[in-house]
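Case 248 in the screening queue. Each case pairs one protein sequence with one candidate compound; here the compound is 3-phosphoglyceric acid. For every case the pipeline is the same: read the inputs, emit a complex structure as tokens, and attach any notable structural observations.

Predict complex for case 248.
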Amino acid sequence: MATTSKLVLLRHGQSTWNELNQFTGWVDVPLTDQGRTEAARAGELLKEQNILPDVVYTSLLRRAITTANLALEAADRQWIPAQRSWRLNERHYGALQGMNKAEVREEHGEEKFMEWRRSYDTPPPALADDHKYSQFGDERYAHLGEDLPRTECLKDVVTRLIPYWYDNIVPQLAQGKTVLIVAHGNSLRALVKHLEGISDDDIAQLNLPTGVPFMYELDDTMKPVTQARFLDPEAAAAGAAAVAAQGK
Ligand SMILES: O=C(O)[C@H](O)COP(=O)(O)O
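Case 248 output:
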């Protein structure tokens, strides 16, 4: 009988720059108190619904790592193995990192704002290496050398994330394990696009809430056999609407 496996995706809880409505990307900002509460609630939902991760994957950014730690503590699963990779990082927002979303929309207009924020293959302008919000020289990315991103579009995220999905995450799922990935709005949008075969145009409509886990059951070809299910649908709908409204 074909085995299915459970994949749980969780965007980090609210961060300080989410609260300030600033483009964040690879800038390593912490969670707010609300974000910490969201993270713990995510873990409670996992426990209440008996969805018990066997392994967790996070980006190299503290807002995801802290969210994973708080959720696993609430789910009493802190002991499971964890793997971390830059390939799960948020999309690099280039020269927009640190800028206020409403101000960018005001200054450049709705069309350009949405093109930089939600188009599939148009990245924002690149971030200069000497900019205060650049990751140039950050030890955790030293191995990337000149390949360190200075900006990314969603297509770039798909290109650097999907090999990690196949090389590191799929083998765990193929063993029937329950996998938890704690990452970011756009890195998770890239993975959802791949899993659900969403078109380059239609993916612009997808916004993910902070701190609400959603789950797929996958077959042995890693295709979803169930629709994505948010463990708290009301909170998810409210959160996604708030993300869509950012910058308005
Ligand atoms: O990096 C950021 O600014 C957010 O995490 C994602 O922002 P977005 O929803 O505007 O892409």
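Case 248 observations:
- The helical segments are 16-19, 33-48, 62-74, 101-108, 110-118, 154-174, 185-196, 233-245.
- The radius of gyration is 17 Å.
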